[in-house]
């Protein structure tokens, strides 16, 4: 059974063959990536995850942008945006935005860190499997890169009306975004699943 | 089965796990609803249960929500006491009139074109499976992947609103508030994302397989 795989998108049965390093196996029928052979980078991913978690708190609580207009000034943080929407009784929109910009990305990072720590210590339990399933579920809902584009669009919208300044929070947010993208690109999910199975202790 | 060069897991009595991609044996002792993956313990299904019905329901829901999302104001802007409510489309037109064509195009694509094309694409996929249209399965798979990948970018407008309402709150001078349309728009994005998740792309290939075609002949 371990010498076969089935395409996730078209259900075609394909025999597993050893791949040279850096190569991907694609489904011969629909072109979906079946598995790939990437270098063992669990420790590297763990380090990126930890730096992303450290950057998280300043990225959502420090000012991203500040605006100056006729002597008055105001700044924007991720948390403030959600708070203002809540106070305007748009709780559903506020909830959706907080889920996609704070809860999903943060929980996702915590779960992945937990899984990777389990793998580096070569002891995995059932909870690590559950954690990695949770990570895969939350992946679609974590939208930091869309938020970044949103910040850019609002910046350009306000550019003619007022004086804008970048805040320290924006630097942290960009760092966080780069870390999250790096993890998403370098993480080999098939490798993580087989390592989880290999080191399972109960 | 030997005449069919494309043997699927389902035809070979095997199930691939949705979560960890392990190939599992389907034995007749358990019904399919009780099966769980031996590796990650998630429920196993050869095809997502009721995939078409769920995707239809979610697609129709987002189609209905698309109406209030575009007719109710998503932002209320007030400068020096002069208030103005903007719907998605009037916001795009205002940006274009102010000479900010590229940004107007980005907002138009993310908030109007993408949700509409997604709804259209999902409807075509659903109809093509329901009525066994002979469209190219490769092209339909490509369409499905686009729909799945692009869905999250529609949230753009909501993040713009969250940034603007926090930044522009200066009492009598200038304020921006979010409107009811924003909530409906969020509903459209979430429902279309769920619709793309409940749709099982393997159904595209099931009715396109040479076996089925030869049985029709």
What does this molecule look like?
- Helix content of chain A is 58%, strand content 13%.
- Chain A has 7 helices and 7 strands.
- In chain A, a hairpin with a 2-residue loop joins strand 5 (65-69) and strand 6 (72-76).
- The longest helix of chain A is centred in the middle third of the chain and has 30 residues, at 91-120.
- The two termini of chain A are 22 Å apart.
- The mean pLDDT of chain A is 90.
- With 217 residues, chain B is mostly helical.
- In chain B, strands 4-3-5 form a 3-stranded antiparallel beta sheet.
- Chain B has helices spanning 51-71, 88-97, 101-130, 137-150, 156-167, 180-198, 202-206, 210-216; strands at 14-16, 23-25, 75-79, 82-86, 174-178.
- Helix content of chain B is 54%, strand content 10%.
- At the A-B interface, strand 1, strand 5, strand 6, helix 2 and helix 3 of A face strand 2, helix 3, helix 4, helix 5 and strand 5 of B.
Shape of chain A: elongated
Strand tally of chain B, please?
A: 5
The helical percent of chain A reads: 55-70%
Secondary structure tally, helices of chain A: 7
Hey, roughly how much beta strand do the residues of chain B contain?
A: 5-15%
- The stretches of 5 or more residues of chain A where confidence is low (pLDDT under 50) are none
Query: Total helix count of chain B?
Result: 8
């Amino acid at each position: 059974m371990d010498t076969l795989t089935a395409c996730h998108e078209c259900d075609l049965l394909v025999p597993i063959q050893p791949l040279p390093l850096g190569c991907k196996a694609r489904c011969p029928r629909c072109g979906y990536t079946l598995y790939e052979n990437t270098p063992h980078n669990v420790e590297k991913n763990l380090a990126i995850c930890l730096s992303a978690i450290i950057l998280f708190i300043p990225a959502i609580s420090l000012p991203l942008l500040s605006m100056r207009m006729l002597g008055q000034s105001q700044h924007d943080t991720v948390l403030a945006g959600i708070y203002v929407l809540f106070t305007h009784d748009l709780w559903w929109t506020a909830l959706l935005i907080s889920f996609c910009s704070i809860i999903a990305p943060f929980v996702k990072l915590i779960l992945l860190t937990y899984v990777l720590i389990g793998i580096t210590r070569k002891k995995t339990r059932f909870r690590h499997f559950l954690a990695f399933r949770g990570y895969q579920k939350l992946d679609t809902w974590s939208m930091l890169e869309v938020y970044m584009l949103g910040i850019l669009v609002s910046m350009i919208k306000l550019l003619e009306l007022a004086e804008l300044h970048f805040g320290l929070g924006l630097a942290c947010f960009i760092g966080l975004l780069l870390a999250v993208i790096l993890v998403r690109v370098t993480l080999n999910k098939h490798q993580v699943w087989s390592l989880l199975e290999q080191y399972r202790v109960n | 089965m030997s005449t069919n060069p494309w043997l699927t897991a389902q035809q070979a009595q095997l199930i691939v796990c949705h979560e960890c991609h392990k190939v599992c044996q389907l034995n007749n002792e358990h019904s399919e609803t009780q099966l769980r993956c031996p590796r990650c313990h998630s429920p196993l299904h050869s095809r997502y249960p009721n995939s078409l019905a769920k995707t239809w329901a979610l697609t129709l829901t987002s189609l209905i929500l698309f109406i209030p999302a575009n007719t109710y104001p998503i932002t209320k802007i007030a400068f020096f006491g002069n208030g103005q409510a903007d719907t998605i489309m009037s916001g795009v037109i205002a940006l274009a009139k102010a000479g900010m064509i590229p940004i107007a195009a980005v907002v138009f694509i993310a908030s109007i074109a993408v949700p509409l094309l997604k709804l259209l694409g999902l409807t075509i996929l659903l109809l093509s499976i329901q009525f066994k249209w002979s469209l190219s399965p490769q092209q339909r798979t490509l369409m499905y992947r686009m729909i799945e990948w692009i869905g999250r970018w529609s949230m753009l407008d909501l993040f713009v609103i969250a940034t603007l309402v926090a930044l522009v709150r200066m009492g009598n001078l200038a304020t921006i508030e979010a409107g009811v349309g924003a909530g409906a728009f969020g509903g459209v994005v979430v429902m279309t994302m769920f619709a793309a998740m409940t749709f099982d792309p393997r159904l595209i290939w099931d009715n396109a397989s040479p076996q089925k075609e030869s049985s029709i002949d």
